[in-house]
Amino acid sequence: MAEKMNLEIVTPYSKVLDMEVDEVTATGKLGEFGVLPGHAPFLTSLKIGELAYKNNGITEHMALNWGYFEIKDDRIIVLVETAETPEAIDVERAKAAQGRAEEALKKLDPEDKQFKIYEAALERALIRMQVAAKAARK
Question: What is the pTM of this model?
């Protein structure tokens, strides 16, 4: 059994990460999951959430925005709309987005088309702040 897996994270704009890792956890549509070397092949969709990977005892976190996660033969490919490292996250901007989304949600009915859009914006802002806070605690 392999001791490492190759993790590749790609957005429509660039390859964000390509490295060997010890383990990965991510947020799928059905909840959080983790993979270790030797994991059975599978493909799943990702929701707005956090991806964490561990390499040589050091855990790193990223904020992801919808996509797909595939593992096969100890190679993980993550295709997502956006992937942000804690250093790339502007916390003040995320707080402002949170405020705008919360205000809009107060005025909208859950049946309104815009409700889901603002709900996703709120979720993105919260995940971004969560990931940035984890890096600040290091």
Answer: 0.86
Spatial contact of 64 and 49, defined as CB atoms under 8 Å apart? yes
Write down the pLDDT at residue 40: 94
Would you state the structure tokens that stand for residue 116, as one six-digit string?
């889901």
SS (H, E, C) 38-66: CCCCEEEEECCEEEEEEECCEEEEEEEEE
pLDDT of residue 108: 86
* Domains defined along the chain, listed by start: 5-84 (2.60.15.10), 88-136 (1.20.5)
Task: Give CA–CA dist 81/8, Å, rounded.
Answer: 14
Mean pLDDT of 106-126: 89
